[in-house]
Specification:
Serine Threonine Protein Phosphatase 5, Tetratricopeptide repeat, alpha+beta, five-stranded antiparallel beta sheet, SH3 type barrels, extended
Length: 250
């Protein structure tokens, strides 16, 4: 009986908690509409402190920071929104505008030959997209194999058998590409530089020589961490070490 009462109380508490966050979100959105961007950000942060997240929350928070010319936070929260919904067109467009405010103009290292073909092919769909293709390819195999099994004419059997084999091949590749995309998403960690100017060191040591400079809003790939430093890589392939407090992991 006590367990049932506890579960009922917990359910009620979560319901009330959800309503509280919804009310706070609506107040923050109203503040944003009235041009009170600082107040809106403060309320959105209250929701985040409660371990709540959503595309709308990150997107609205990014917009509020963008209105105040907060380069790094706006880029950070647009990126957070896109992690939850990679196809959010408004977030994609606004992120492009926010990136135009950054100082660092880094040319992406262009892949060559087979690597370029591989990246373009695998990157043409998300992990979920390739998984859906894998499911469809299995259905194609089943349909054509059944047709092959019950066919009488040899020419028809050859065509259907070939089509079913192609379905299997498509399944193998799409499943593999889905796995690669999912693995990349889990193992690749990115961060946004929050320091106005960040000195990237050649080694994880404050006294090490400077490798290059970065500025707020630049997106970097995290490779390792040691002694209070992150080892990072930028899009042109250069690597270095930066104090952890100078950036914010996504």
């Amino acid at each position: 009986m006590k367990k049932i009462l506890f579960l009922c109380f917990l359910s009620f508490s979560l319901s009330v908690l959800g309503q509280d966050y919804k009310a706070t979100f609506e107040k923050a959105t109203q503040d944003y509409a009235n041009g009170n961007y600082e107040a809106a950000i403060s309320k959105y942060e209250q929701i985040l402190e409660g371990k709540q997240e959503s595309v709308a929350l990150y997107y609205n928070m990014a917009n509020a920071h963008y209105k105040l010319d907060h380069i790094a936070p706006s880029i950070y929260y647009y990126e957070k929104a896109l992690k939850l919904d990679p196809n959010h067109e408004d977030a994609q467009n606004n992120l492009a505008f926010a990136n135009n405010m950054t100082i660092d103009a880094i040319e992406k290292a262009a892949p060559t030959g087979f690597q370029k073909i591989k990246e373009n092919t695998i990157g043409s769909f998300s992990a979920d997209g390739w998984a859906q293709i894998a499911v469809i390819s299995i259905l194609i195999f089943v349909v054509f194999f059944i047709g092959y099994y019950f066919s009488v004419k040899s020419i028809t059997k050859r065509i259907l058998f070939t089509a079913s084999i192609l379905g299997v091949i498509l399944f193998i590749f799409s499943f593999a590409f889905s796995f690669i995309q999912q693995n990349n998403a889990l193992n690749e960690n990115f961060a946004i530089v929050f320091s106005e100017e960040a000195s990237i060191k050649a080694e994880p040591n404050p006294k090490a020589s400077e490798a290059f400079l970065l500025h707020e809003g630049t997106k970097v790939k995290l490779l390792d961490s040691f002694n209070g430093f992150y080892k990072l890589e930028i899009s042109d392939g250069r690597q270095g070490w930066l104090k952890q407090e100078s950036l914010k992991p996504l």
